[in-house]
C-alpha cells in the first residue's frame, strides 16, 4: 500500500469471506472498515485514506486554476450579505443574515412594536476554531426569553443541546450531548422535550427536561423498544396545543400526543402502528387532522376528536391524480401541499369546506410552504422557483388570492433569465413507463447530438428532486452544457406509487429509468453517448455505482458523492446506525433470500467488472454516520484492482466532515468547483 502522489494508491487485498443463503461472498477489502468503529484509528486504514487524498490533490493540481475560476464564479453569484425575510412570531420578527464573506448565518430578532435588533445566535462565533459546524435546532421558548439550540462540530450528527438566556446571550444549561432532531417547548417555557441517539446512532427515545434540573434524571416520555428500525421524532402542532411524539420507519408510523401545557402527562396514543400505514397529525379548531395512506396510495385527509383519536372521519378522499404530500392546519385553513402530474400545488381548504389552489406564474416550477410559525396569520409564506427563476419568497393573502413578492434571490455577478430555456420531457423507460426529465440550457444550445450534458439523479426514499433553481449549475450551462434532472422511480415525483415502484423488489426500475432517461435525451438530440457526465449522492451515489457497472459506455464522467455502494454488507450489519430502519427500503438480506439475491444483483461493490469505466470522482466523509467512509473506499479499491482502462479514478475522503461534506457556504462551493473541474477536464 505504497504510492507516490502521481501513482494511484493500491489497497492491499486481505482474504475475507462469508456465506449466507448458500452463497459465499469474497470481500478482500473488508479490512478498510475499522473494526473499532465508530472509533477510527487503525493506522493502515488512515494511511490508505491519506494516500488517496494525496493522489486526489496531485491529480487535481494541474487544474487548480480552473477550480479557482469556478469557485470565484460560484461565490460571485452569492449575495455576501444575504438575509432572510423577517417572519412574525408573536411579539417578535425573526430572521437570519450573513456578514459579507461570512460562512455561517447570524440569527436576529426585533420587537414587532418597534425597537432595535438583537442577536439570538452568532454561528460564526460558535464555529470559530472548528473545521466543521452545523446548527440543527434553534427554537425560541413561547415566552421569548430562552432559546434551545443544538450543533454538531465534527460531522458525526451527535448534536449538543443547550439552553440560552436571550437577555444575556449566555448558555445556562447543557441538556444533552447526544441529541438529534427537533425539540418541543412546553407551554410554560420551563420544559422541553428532545430526542437522543443510542450507541448505534438511532434516535430511540424522547425525554422531558425541566429547566434547572439535572439532565441525568430527565424522565423518558417515550422509548422505542419494539422495533430497532424505528426512530423517534418530536414536534408541535400548529396550534401549539400538543407536543407530537412520532416513531416509525420508512413505511410505518405511530404517533402519541402530549399536552403542551402538561408535558409530564402520559402520552396519548393516536392510533397503534399498522405495518405499511403512514400517518401524520396536526391540530386546529379543537380537532385532530390526519394525513394517511391507509386506504389510498396517494393519501387522504381525515379528522378526529382528541377524546377518540383513533376514530378517523373522512374529509378528503384519496385520488389517483392528486398526491397529497403534506398537511398543516391553521385557524382558518388546512394547507395541503400536493403534486399533480408531477407539478407542485398548494391547496387552501377553509374549515367551511371551501377550497382553492394558489396560482403560480410558470408552467414548470417548484413551490412549497415557507416558515409559518403562527396559528392565525393574515398571509401564508410560500417559496417558489423554477430552473430559470431564482428562489422567490411570497406572502399569499387568501382573502384576495394575491401573491406579494417579498424577496427574489439576488445574483450579484448578474443573471439574465431570458438567456436560458428549460424543458420538461417525458422519455420512455424500457417497461413503457414515461419518465419526466427537466432540462436547463442556454438558448442556442445545439440539439444535433453534439452537446455535452450533465445528468443528475437520486431515486430513493420517496424524495423528489424538484425542477428548482441553482446558481452553481450555471458554471456548466454558461460553458455550453445542458443540465438535466431525471425524475426517476424511487422518488415520489409522480405520486407515492412512483416511489413504491422504485424501492425493495422494484429497485431495478430506478437504475433502468436513469439510463433510459439518458438514452431519451440522446434521442432528443441533447447529447451523445460518452458526452454525459452524471452525478448523484448517498442513495443517488448507489445509482451512480450501478449505472457505471451496467452502462459504462454512456457516461463521459461519473461523480459519486458519499455513495451507498456496499449495500449487501451494510444491510447485513445490524450494528450500523441505519441498517434496521433501512430494511423496508431495500429489503432484509439476513432473513430474506430473495432480498439477498436482489441486492447482490445490483450492489455496486460486488458487481465491479473487468471492463472499461469512465473517469470517476468518488467522495466520502470520515465521520459520516449515514454512508460510512469505508463504502466509497472499498468501492474505489475494487475499481482500481479490476477495471481495464487507464481513465482517472479519484477518491477524496473529508477527514473532518460527515454526510454533507464540508460545512460553511463557501467551503461547500469549493467542493462543487472541484467536481465541475473534474467533469470539464474529463469530458473532452
Task: Pick out its properties.
single chain, alpha+beta, Methylamine Dehydrogenase, Chain H, 684 residues
Condensed summary:
By secondary structure, this protein is α+β, with helices and mostly antiparallel strands. Helices cover 19% and strands 33% of the residues. The model has no long low-confidence stretch (mean pLDDT 95).
Commentary on this structure:
- The protein has 684 residues and is α+β, with helices and mostly antiparallel strands.
- It has four domains: 1-79 and 565-684, Rossmann fold (3-Layer(aba) Sandwich), CATH 3.40.50; 81-120, no CATH class; 130-277, Prolyl oligopeptidase, N-terminal domain (Methylamine Dehydrogenase, Chain H), CATH 2.130.10; 416-528, Alpha/Beta hydrolase fold, catalytic domain (Rossmann fold).
- The protein contains twelve helices and 38 strands.
- The strands form nine sheets. The protein has an eight-stranded mixed beta sheet with strand order 31-32-34-33-35-36-37-38, with helices on both faces.
- The longest helix has 18 residues, at 43-60.
- It is globular, with a radius of gyration of 25 Å.
